[in-house]
Amino acid sequence: MSNLLDPKILLAIKDLHLAAKTAVDGFMAGMHTSRVKGAGLEFSQYRSYQPGDDLRWLDWKMYARSDRYYIRESEMETSIDVGLLIDASNSMLHTEDGISKIDCARYLAASLGYLAHLQGDAAGLAVLHHNQLFSMAARREAQHMARLYYQLEKIQPGGTFTQPVHYRDLFAGPHNRQLLIFITDYYEQSGEITHLLQTLAALGHEILVFHLLGKKELTGNFKGYDAVEDLETGQQIELTGIADTDYPLKLEAYTASLRKQLLQKRIYYRQHILQEPMDAALRDFLNQRNKMRR
Predict the structure, then answer these.
(1) Which pTM does this prediction carry?
(2) How many C-beta atoms lie closer than 10 Å to residue 62's C-beta?
(3) Positive or negative CA dihedral for 44, 27, 100, 91?
């Protein structure tokens, strides 16, 4: 694993596009390059160019012969739409070892978007915060990716998780099947995150959930703290004696139950630890993308 994937090194790079490129370059350095190539590895046929198609796959020789634009299609590689969904409710401000969940989500989404773009995929973005929804439709152009990085940089977490009345943009537009990457701390009051994911899965989308957790949060190591505060409700919980409880076992049982519940709806669940590198997340994305193309 390249140290370029170390979260503290990436977070020190303030330019999100450069950080994403650094992460993906580090990831690819640890893989055989043939596994991370763009569309069109094995040529199958031509089709007419459509607005929004990636210009990298135009066949200029065909244009010279026919004065018309054609795209080279492939049997082995086809581009897909990738939707990056970011939970930016107030609880995502939780920070451990100088790394906040929202910064982890920001850099992870940027890296996944960059990797998707390298594959010739269209990347879109939805941010759920302040009980509202911001969304950008999936597109392939380099200018669109610049706007996506800009919107990721602008995220200001706040409020509670977005309510169903604001989901309209997630369900509107063309109903083509997408690979949706949902990045969240999975803090829900009454099953609202699970309900949203199950609704999106019912629409036929492939969904991969990254559940962000800090090491202290995962192990229940709250030494030095007398209480913790719920960032969304303001409720405080006393920590006296919590180190002697079965907190880790209860958390493990909860996440195992959650994983099983989501998998029953063909939603794939992964934990991502704030302090750990993101190579596993990038690999999970590629694996899910390859399954979707079969």
Answers:
(1) 0.82
(2) 15
(3) positive
